[in-house]
Design brief:
Beta Polymerase, domain 2, 21 strands, Ubiquitin-like (UB roll), 28 helices
Length: 747
Amino acid sequence: MQKSEFTAEEDLMIQREFEALLDDYAHTLHRQKVELITHAFNFAYKAHYGVRRLSGEPYIMHPLAVARICVKQIGLGSTSICAALLHDVVEDTDYTVEDIAGLFGDKIAQIVGGLTKISGGVFGSQASEQAENFRKLLLTISDDIRVVLIKIADRLHNMRTLGSQPKDKQYKIAGETEYIYAPLAHRLGLFPIKTELEDLSFKYEHPETWQEIHDKLEAIKGSKLEDYEAFSAPIRERLQSMGYTFTMKARIKSVYSIWKKMMRQQCAFEDVYDLMAVRIIFTPNESMSEKDQCWMIYSAITEIYRPHPERIRDWISTPKANGYEALHVTVMGKNGEWVEVQIRTDRMHEIAEHGYAAHWKYKTGESDDGLDKWIQEIKEVLAHPDKDAMEFLGTFKLNLFAQEVFVFTPKGEIKTLPLGATALDFAFLLHSELGEHCIGAKVNHTLVPLSYRLKGGDQIEILTSNSQHPQREWLKMVTTARARNGLNQYFRREERRYIKHGEKLVEDAILMDKDLAADRDLALARLLNYYDLTQPSELYAQVGQGSIRLDNIHDIVYPKRSLLSYVPFIGKRNNLSPTLPSREGEKDAVKPKKGPHAIVLTDENLGKEYILSQCCHPIPGDEVLGYLDEEGMMHIHKLDCPEAALLKTSYGKRLYSATWNTHRVQSFVETIELKGIDKFGVFIQVLQAITTDFHINMRAINISSEDGIFKGTMEIYVYDKSELEELLKAIRKVENIKEVKRYEKDF
């Protein structure tokens, strides 16, 4: 960080920002503790005096901005505001948590201490550190939720000012934000913050695409707002006649959500029809329930506009697990466009905007709350964490961003699971013992397998057998962190049991042979070498499972000399194979020759210095990044590749920004998917576009037809992304072609 005296103008800017914070605080219903907040600000100002951010602005502007987000966008009070102002003091100065406790009390010090523990971001430089830092973050949810809420505010401001960071740091921070922080904000009900985090992550990962959609959105905003005025006028009149106090707002989709829809539906910006939504926030009458009044307003709206029968979302009767309540209906406007209308009370709106903070404000007494259950689930997952850091992150993320399905037990109790959850997930939700011994289920009194995907309203009875035990393939059937964690716990218990049993068998076999017993360490080393294992525990586990037998242990340790010993052998080991050839002397992998965080992809170095990853098949023109593996080889991924997203969150120091500098010297195999109406001659026109119009060679064709619809794939050779996109545009113009897109691998 830079350090220099503040100018008079900068001091004035700092003072104005602090006054804006106090003004935000004054407009809340919290008990006003201005003196305490002023004390915290003055302390932080002195502690950070002269220190500047990479952008050059005074560092104190960052904690001030975080504090404003906490009070204005999350609705937190004086304790959180003070903690936000002080959140970097312990990490960046000589002050300690004990100093904070002496000056501001134990509660503020506890929150600052929690923020300091996770100050390096969710992820460190090593995999084990990443998992540990992430666990620390999650543990604070069950300790004091304000630590995580302030951390999310801190990340939001860092994302707003990410432009001052170098490109490779932008990739890492944006990837980390999209992978963990945005889903975490969503799960805690902070929808506006979640939307902004996603949009900012997308802006830094795909700047050109973001700018293109942003410009198109700005160009039509004026006309959309005119449409809103015409659409909302009759609704306003009706609600006023019903005697309601209310506000109506037009809500335009974010750039990121538009892009996601374009990718999901493989359509152009112009074909995204629901760019605008209308939100109604009303003050309910005390004489009737909120639910009844929401449905009355729904009835009034649908008397004016025709509703879409499949686009009604009732989050009032059954709120989302993150506390969200509202009634959504999509109606046909007078201009022929569909518009989503969201109906909320004041209370519902505050929960939707401020998430968990508002949830606690409105919670009374004992409740079977989804957020409380989720926090309890965090505690259970953290009690038995996975050994593999990446598996831990992936397992936990399963439950962060999932849509929900509501199902029933045989006794009629309602349970919430992520969309796509299976009968096996449901069994583990009820109890780990049920999950481990589950043989199937009855759904709506019909027998179904473990892999059955649950639907809303299903009533499920789990069937068990004491002879049933989990199998490794069950991991492919489950979608919830609870089930995956339960299975991994079982497999770890079994592995420990196998290791213990196998160790006894190996020791007994060695002791029974005097030659082996004379040099136990040599015997063990040769067994490991023979079976191509590195740790004794791996050998013990396989012996304990019965996959390695010890009948010929003497011959393995002391092989008889024979002609076979001199025959070169490459392949899988068996009982006759000698030691594999040593890899010593192999050529070292080529490391990138460019600068520390920038590489250029040319026709000459592709496939030599840099490997194009098979998971996403990047071609010239795609936005890409480089990942340096442990052996020094650089792998090139598309920026939006799911595997790259995981790398960005986990191995930030091994990431490199990459640019293309190819000259159409070599071509790349790409797969395109087609779908259309099976009319005579349609496929000939497609082939003509590929071979005659574009002079593109093909490698393989796979087409099938059923009930008048054909679909299939074609492998073609293209030079770059622009050539591929031009070809796709030409194919779309062929009559009866309904869909053509670049193949994207499912992960």
